[in-house]
Amino acid sequence: RQSGAVYEFGISGSTSLQFDASAYSKTVTVTGNDSCTVTSTESWCVVSPTYGQGSSSVSVSVKLNTSTSDRYAKLYFHGKNTNKDVTVSVTQYGADATLSATMNKTTFASSANDEATLTVTSNESWTVSISGGDWLSFSKNSGSGNQSVTVRTTKANSTGSQRSAVVVIQS
Prior knowledge:
0% helix
């Protein structure tokens, strides 16, 4: 009487991987003598190779996370002959919040309807407002991500004196 092959399959180490927001790769070690397939639930989390035989290494690569939100994926390792499944949880932390702005000019003509472009660079939602300048308006008061806002003078300056206002951008 001859007995069949005994197959073994598993994962060496943790079944939980954490990544910071940058693009990065880590390795998961598959143990045993079984063949296995690997799939990822999310397109930003890529495994290679997706099929292996016996003890081997699988590279887990995450793409850059520009959002401030954490994101999650599952990796499913399936042993063909053992019919055993191992799940690896992947967490990629969100990026640090960023917010900056530039304006193509800061001095306006004394007439109404003079314009400037405010360029907002951010990876989150933001608002823009004016402090001390009822003579300015914006094409939009809020946004998300990278956008341009038109700043326009709404009233002519007929006083002959310089006027000022503060443009406030906050997330």
